[in-house]
Write a structure and sequence with these properties.
8 helices; extended; alpha+beta
């Protein structure tokens, strides 16, 4: 006899936690990192009066999901978290709770957290927690760089001129102090040259890079990873690229 799906509505008691496997990446993160410290970090950027805001911990967790699973669109991130049970569980949202609108992310970036440094503080605190839990050993680390294309049109480019420092590489402060006390020491000269660069009207902070395998408007990212559990312990983004020498000439 042919079976047919029963579509009658039912009332059930549902334990969301029991549906997430023990080896799921988000469960491992949730068991290791306590995100409550974000409330203290974010407190200076919120008013003591007015309507209650979206929970800042949920915003950070949603952004983390987007990074971990390669969701580069804020609209799609909102949709994926709304549909994915593990994502909702990680963000401590039940099945009836509405996922924050995608515009919340862009408005918080533009108005609340721009140039605040809060994301760097959150990153550093999570690394500290990983160190305390033993997920970061500090024994062996690897570093690598990659070109990150900017989300801009090639038609948005324009030519400009910028002054670029051409001084020699500065030594570590301890070494510099020791050398300065030696006879004949000469302070390195800071020489500035004017270079023609390509920039983007859409994203003024990105620059142009021209190398063998890397070409276009964007950024040069560098990451350091502790090899024990693959935890990222350091991130740097270089920008303002020089098309003549094919490399970055200024860092953030």
């Amino acid at each position: 006899m042919m079976g047919r799906q029963d579509t009658q509505m039912q009332m059930i008691i549902f334990d969301m936690d029991s549906m997430i496997p023990d080896d799921h990446l988000l469960r491992q993160i949730k068991n290791t990192v306590n995100f409550d410290f974000i409330y203290e970090k974010a407190a200076p950027y919120y008013s003591n009066i007015g309507r209650r805001s979206i929970d800042p911990v949920i915003l950070v967790k949603m952004l983390l999901i987007g990074y971990l699973y390669g969701i580069k669109s804020e609209r799609r991130l909102e949709e994926e978290i709304s549909l994915n049970l593990a994502y909702r569980w990680f963000c401590d949202m039940d099945l009836m709770q509405k996922v924050p609108d995608h515009s919340v992310f862009s408005q918080n970036r533009k108005r609340r957290f721009k140039d605040s440094g809060i994301f760097r503080e959150i990153f550093n605190e999570i690394v500290y927690q990983c160190i305390r839990s033993g997920a970061v050993s500090g024994t062996t680390g690897v570093a690598d760089g990659s070109f990150l294309p900017a989300n801009v049109s090639w038609a948005s480019r324009y030519e400009t001129k910028e002054k670029i420092g051409c001084s020699t590489t500065k030594y570590l402060e301890e070494l510099e102090e020791e050398l300065s006390s030696m006879p004949g020491y000469k302070e390195p000269e800071n020489v500035e040259k004017e270079k023609e660069c390509l920039k983007s009207r859409t994203d003024p902070e990105c620059g142009y890079i021209h190398q063998t395998r890397k070409k276009g408007l964007g950024y040069l990212t560098e990451m350091t990873v502790d090899t024990k559990c693959g935890i990222i312990t350091g991130v740097d983004v270089r920008q303002h690229f020089n098309p003549i020498c094919g490399g970055a000439v200024a860092a953030n």
